[in-house]
Amino acid sequence: MHPIIAIKPLLRIASLLGLLLTLAPAKAERVTLIATNTAGYYNEVIGVLLNGSSPAFPTSGDPSLDFTNAPNLAPAQSVLGNWLAFPPTLTPPHWTTNPVPIPRPWPVGTESAIVYRIDAPGVGYVDARIRFGVDNGLFVWFDGQFLGGSLRPGDAVLGEHQFILPIIAGGTHYLQVLREDHGNTDDYLVEVTAEPAEIVLFGNLTTPNNSAGPRYTTWYAQSFVTDSRDYLLRSATLRMGLPTTANGRFFVALYADSGAIRPGARLTQLSGTSDPSRAGDYLYTPTASVLLTANTVYWIVVGTTGGDSQYQIWDEEDVVNLEIGASYGLSHSGNQGASWTPATTQSLLSMEITGQALPSPPPIPLYYLTITPGPGFATLQAPENSAVYYLIYAGTTSPTSSLGGWPRVTAGRPGRFPTRLAPRPPSSAPSASPIIPRATRTAMAWTICGNSIIPACSTHSIPPTPVLTPMAMA
């Protein structure tokens, strides 16, 4: 492990060679793609066409139901049209001609439909998080693919319904939402955020104050360090000056780290011109997918493969104006990469390295839950912004990815679970699951799960003394 020193940008750097220079963070900020006030194509003429057509569209009561299969929308086909196609066909007058502000409340006891358009730039987005709050229910599709649906009693709470899309590819996409109501009031909240998939991992295309002359007898290597996420290498842009001599044998390659703050093995050569004979920025890209693993040192190496030539790449010595990323500095080799010597000055080559972020595993925060005993039932309260919780009873089998029928509670909304009736176990549970005597049916554990897109569950024991306020677990 290399020692690490955090250094603020725009301050003069006086670090010892071999210490990490931390520039501005490379990690992309999350962007909001859809909010409650985002305009969308809207259809409010569905009315009561779906009422009573299936359990998804009740006309009375206040059920708490989840749906992993899309409901039958045939009774409303005449007004919905081919809205789940890609791209959707949204025909007036049932649909608005253009996107309009979406009303939070809509006529009570009816259904309404929304289509949001998402234009993803470049290689798109990763880790898209879709959060809803609704009174009473909703059903959600992305590009016509069903994500899930739920009915819940109570007020709309943002985050009570959540979905994760690991990747939204570059291009145009559509989020389709059907809102359901069977009560006296309704409400609707939505938030969709994501991280840009392509970001700058290392950036130092500032005004340089010097130049390095890569040639056959002198290769240069610029280090950069990835953050906590895995990436695919997208490109390296080099700011070149006028060459002293040119022979068309210039190369750019990606190297691993040797473990001693020097380049190690060559990983791949990047594709681009071998004769950057004019001053300017030159783009080099991998010819196949190259994985950059998290928290790892890599090197961009430049030189020539032979002959009498000397190209010029701008650099900045005695660095005072860092931009993006992190680096252990510059090294050079006088024997075609057989050995490397760190630069004696704090220098950075003038280049920009971009990567395509790979989706992270779904976040599964761990929380204690508030458990309140009652006459014949227990109330379980989950904190807002959490995933879905399932209550497990003593002696029953652990849940699997098939959790239909298990008692559950979603973020920010309490759920009641009977203490005198055993829950129906998942369909995959062994038929020999023990039957617990009524007197001993007590809640023993809770399970937190992901969603229908990336199912992931982990079970945790309830603390001996229930926590009165939801608290994050260390």
How would you describe what is shown here?
This protein has 474 residues and is mostly beta strands. It folds into three domains: 31-197, Jelly Rolls; 204-357, Sandwich (Jelly Rolls); 370-461, no CATH class. 1% of the residues lie in helices and 42% in strands. It is built from one helix and 33 strands. The chain is elongated. The protein starts with 20 loop residues before the first strand and ends in a 13-residue tail after the last strand.
Give the topology, please:
Layout: E1 21-22, E2 31-35, E3 41-47, E4 65-67, H1 77-80, E5 111-120, E6 125-135, E7 137-142, E8 145-151, E9 161-168, E10 171-180, E11 187-196, E12 198-203, E13 210-212, E14 219-225, E15 231-245, E16 250-257, E17 263-269, E18 280-284, E19 291-292, E20 297-304, E21 310-317, E22 326-327, E23 330-333, E24 341-342, E25 347-349, E26 351-357, E27 370-374, E28 377-381, E29 388-393, E30 408-409, E31 415-418, E32 443-449, E33 457-461
Antiparallel strand pairs: 1-22, 2-11, 3-5, 4-8, 5-10, 6-9, 6-11, 7-8, 7-10, 12-26, 13-21, 14-20, 14-23, 15-18, 15-19, 15-21, 15-26, 16-17, 16-20, 21-25, 23-24, 27-28, 28-31, 29-30, 29-32, 32-33
pLDDT < 50 runs, ≥5 residues: 1-18, 362-474
Helix content: under 10%
Give the domain tally.
Answer: 3
β-strand percent reads: 35-45%
Gross geometry: elongated
The CATH class of the largest domain is identified as Mainly Beta
Q: CATH topology of the largest domain, anyone?
A: Jelly Rolls
Structural class: mainly beta
Number of helices: 1
Span from first to last CA?
Answer: 26 Å
